[in-house]
Amino acid sequence: MRSGDDNFDFEMVVIGGGSAGYAAARTTAAAGLKTAVIDGGPELGGLCILRGCMPTKALLYAAEVKHLADHGETWGLQIPKVGFDFGKVMARKNAMIEDFASYRREQLHDGRFQLFRSKARFIDPHTLALEDGSTVSARSILISTGSTVAPLPLPALNSAQPWTSDDVLKLQRLPESVIVLGGGPVALELAQFFLRFGVKTTLIQRSSHILKPFDEEMAKPLEDALRAEGMQLFTDTQLVDGGIKGGRKFVTFEHKGKNQTVFAEAILHGLGRRPNLEGLDLEKAGLETVTRRIQTNTEMQTKVPHIYAAGDCTGPHEIVHIAIQQGETAAYNIIHADKKKSMDYRVLVSVVFTDPQVAMVGLSEKEARAAGRNIVTADYPFNDHGKSMIMEAMHGSVKLIADAQTGELIGGACTGPNAGDLIHEVAVAVHQRMTAAEFAAVPHYHPTLAEIWTYPAEDIADKIAG
């Protein structure tokens, strides 16, 4: 056990060079703290760049362009049968990811901090052992080791060797058919990607509706749209069995009181991720996990005061911009121990990049009611909105949630075209604690998608005024 700053190799050591870790390291280095980053991953860059946000969105956009071309007749366009070269689709994705990743590698190697390419484990609360037998000590430590794919809930499925999202990003050819397990963002986005590239797609979700954290009426239009495109989608299920029969992969599940079996060439495991903490020997640092996560306070500090955590390994939200905020907050608090700041999850934004997109900010209606909040809500559909009708993008609606006494907006949701962009209007309003009346008074250009927010805002303002 070391004591006294003079005995430490570094003032700050970050374990993990992904989004949270890099954000923290650049912040402490800029403040003059002697900083090191330890990253033992096979590639530098982190989940978002290498295997998450960026590569999946590149594939989804290709699928969207193809889908629009396939349906050109909707707008009176005569487009010949649309073909594609899957190798070129993947090559474009790979080139884009290499561009992003190479920039991150440059940032990690630019000399602002020392980079160790190694896994690390705790020897004591201030000291880490590296794979080459050397040790690194630090006055403060940030754990930002990200997440890994969660184990399968049904061991029998292991024999079918299900793909993970990582495997999908490495495909050289498309399967004829696929069974997707899960109804969260990753499962839904990749399922629609397969569907729009001609793969017979079945999705199996345990909960009563997809996107469990969202209000049901915001998830239902996406279910309807996916089924309209030809996806087999089952909700409210229980997995029973899985594996290989007669050379084909299968999943058996209970649905509406009966067992059903679906066969396909491939199975995609889209049932979520869990913190990547294996091999860290956290107990030697005096740390323990709760529900597999490192517990922190809102200052991102663990129960060991000089050790912080940020990103997917601590949660509570596995979202890259939240990971960056957490990393920056932890770094700020290490630098400014006398005037710490806290994370504010009040303006939490979530986006699912399906078509239609699904997004929300702040509290959902069910969260607000579960918390005992007295609220008023209003919604408005895209199928009665000028710009979305022009676009032939009429699945879904927008919804606002406000405090019934003050009219302050505490949440909003959007299912429809460009929902991931549209939700940021409400994020600004929630962040600034605007009332529905104040939000409704903001001028909106016509015809735009964004002006749809004025209708529920005016509705809530009228209800509270009345």
Question: Could you name the CATH class of the largest domain?
Answer: Alpha Beta
CATH superfamily of the largest domain: FAD/NAD(P)-binding domain
How many helices in DSSP terms?
Answer: 13
Shape: globular
The description of the largest β-sheet is:
7 strands, mixed
- Indicate the radius of gyration in whole angstroms: 24 Å
Strand content: 25-35%
- Provide the CATH topology of the largest domain: FAD/NAD(P)-binding domain
How many domains make up the coordinates? 3
What's a concise summary of this model?
The protein is α/β, with parallel strands linked by helices. The chain contains 13 helices and 23 strands. It has 3 domains: 5-149 and 274-343, FAD/NAD(P)-binding domain, CATH 3.50.50; 155-271, FAD/NAD(P)-binding domain (3-Layer(bba) Sandwich), CATH 3.50.50; 346-465, Enolase-like, domain 1 (2-Layer Sandwich), CATH 3.30.390.
Helices and strands in order:
Elements (H helix, E strand, L loop, with lengths): L9 E6 L3 H12 L4 E4 L8 H5 L1 H18 L15 H23 L5 E3 L3 E5 L2 E4 L4 E9 L3 E3 L15 H4 L8 E5 L3 H12 L3 E5 L11 H13 L3 E3 L2 E9 L2 E8 L2 E7 L1 E4 L3 E3 L13 E2 L2 E2 L12 E3 L10 H16 L13 E4 L4 E6 L2 H6 L4 E7 L4 H6 L5 E7 L5 E8 L2 H13 L4 H5 L13 H12 L1
Helix pairs in contact: 1-8, 3-4, 3-6
